[in-house]
Write a structure and sequence with these properties.
With 142 residues, the protein is mainly alpha-helical. The chain has a domain at 62-141. It is 89% helix and 0% strand. The chain has 3 helices and no strands. α1 packs across α2.
C-alpha cells in the first residue's frame, strides 16, 4: 500500500513557488514514487499480524515435533533398557556356567592332588620299609 499524496495540489504549490510546469511535474512524480515505496501504519499492522500468526504456527509445530521426539526418545530408552536386561540375563547365565565349570575343575584337581598325595605316601612308606630292611640287613652282616 502507498501513502496518500495529492499530486495536483503539490504540482500547483511548486509552480506558485516559481518552478516551471515541467520541473513541478518531475518533482511530483519523484515524490510520488518515493512515497509509494513507504509502508503505512496499516501495512505495518498487517505485517505484525501475519508475523504473529506465523510465529504461533511455528511454535505449535515446534511443540508437535518436541512431543514426537520425546515419544521417540522414550521408545528408544525402553528398547535399550529391555536389551540391557536381556544382555544382563545372558551374562548372569554365562557367569553361573563358568562358576560351575571352575568348581568342577577345582573338585577334579583336589581329587588328583589327594590321589597323588596317597601315591606319594605309599611310595615313601615303601621306601622307608626298604630302608629299614636294608639297615637291618646291614646290621646283621656287620
Amino acid at each position: 500500500m502507498s501513502v496518500a499524496f495529492d499530486t495536483l495540489s503539490a504540482s500547483e504549490e511548486f509552480q506558485k513557488a516559481g518552478m516551471s510546469h515541467d520541473q513541478a511535474k518531475v518533482q511530483v512524480s519523484t515524490i510520488s514514487k518515493v512515497l509509494g515505496s513507504f509502508a503505512t501504519q496499516g501495512d505495518i499492522k498487517e505485517s505484525e499480524t501475519n508475523l504473529g500468526v506465523k510465529i504461533e504456527k511455528t511454535e505449535t509445530l515446534i511443540k508437535e515435533v518436541e512431543t514426537k521426539l520425546e515419544a521417540q526418545i522414550k521408545e528408544v530408552e525402553t528398547k535399550l533398557e529391555a536389551q540391557i536386561k536381556e544382555v544382563e540375563t545372558k551374562l548372569e547365565g554365562k557367569i553361573k556356567n563358568v562358576e560351575t565349570q571352575i568348581k568342577e575343575v577345582e573338585v577334579r584337581l583336589e581329587n588328583k592332588i589327594d590321589k597323588l598325595s596317597l601315591q606319594l605316601t605309599i611310595r615313601l612308606g615303601a621306601m622307608m620299609a626298604m630302608a629299614v630292611g636294608l639297615v637291618a640287613a646291614l646290621v646283621k652282616f656287620l
